[in-house]
Write a structure and sequence with these properties.
Blueprint lengths: L1 H17 L13 H6 L6 H11 L5 E9 L11 E4 L2 E2 L3 E8 L2 E11 L2 E8 L12 E4 L9 E5 L2 H6 L6 E8 L4 E8 L2 E9 L5
Antiparallel strand pairs: 1-2, 1-11, 2-4, 3-4, 4-5, 5-6, 6-7, 8-9, 9-10, 10-11
């Protein structure tokens, strides 16, 4: 019996040791230089634009419809508010509310050095809508620290083929006093909203 108890005690001690603090191997330890590279954009305009968005972190701003193409439903009477809620090294989230509709979040993030913009649409229970996560990668040739153009990417075209010639433009106008969100299709402006960055809520 004593031998049996001794064996049980030895197994228990070994089990505790196995559950102890995990030590990273040399291959798992990232140097500061490698970690920094994970959040580096390939183009200076992406970095500058992303940092300008991050400077708005923790603030909310009212907006309004500036333009809607005539044959589309107007949002002129909608109360629009954007909230800059998540600002990390590789991602910025901006929930965009219209009246009581809180289904939309704009997402800007670093994907392998590229600046990507997506629209996250969710139902009230948090489940994704059928049309969600659409958007595109910034066009480096047309981008600046205050202006980025996002042509529809392959995923967007796959779930919504009519968006093949669509572009979203996000612009920080008049020395960061206005954020402009625009939707273009086949070179024509369909919708534009302005958010007043000079008067945080």
């Amino acid at each position: 019996m004593k031998n049996f108890r001794s064996i049980l005690m030895a197994v228990f001690i070994l089990a505790l040791a196995a559950c102890g603090p995990r030590t990273e191997t040399d291959s798992e330890v990232h140097s500061p230089e490698v970690a920094a590279d994970l959040f580096t954009f390939e183009h200076d305009s992406f970095t500058a634009f992303f940092n300008n968005l991050k400077s708005l972190c923790g603030k909310s701003f009212e907006g309004k419809q500036i333009y809607m193409k005539e044959d589309r439903e107007s949002w002129e009477d909608k109360h629009m508010v954007m909230h800059v809620t998540v600002c990390e090294d590789d991602v910025v989230h901006i929930p965009f509310h219209m009246d009581e509709d809180r289904s939309r979040t704009w997402m800007f993030f670093n994907e392998n050095g590229e600046l990507r913009f997506r629209h996250d649409h969710r139902h009230e229970d948090g489940t994704p809508e059928d049309m969600t996560m659409y958007g595109g990668y910034a066009d480096q040739e047309r981008g600046t620290a205050t202006h980025q153009v996002f042509p529809a990417d392959a995923y967007t075209i796959d779930i919504h083929p009519i968006s093949a010639d669509s572009e979203w433009v996000v612009e920080l106008k008049n020395d960061m006093s206005i954020l402009s969100y625009q939707l273009h299709h086949e070179g024509e402006l369909l919708f534009e909203a302005h958010f007043d960055l000079t008067q945080p809520l």
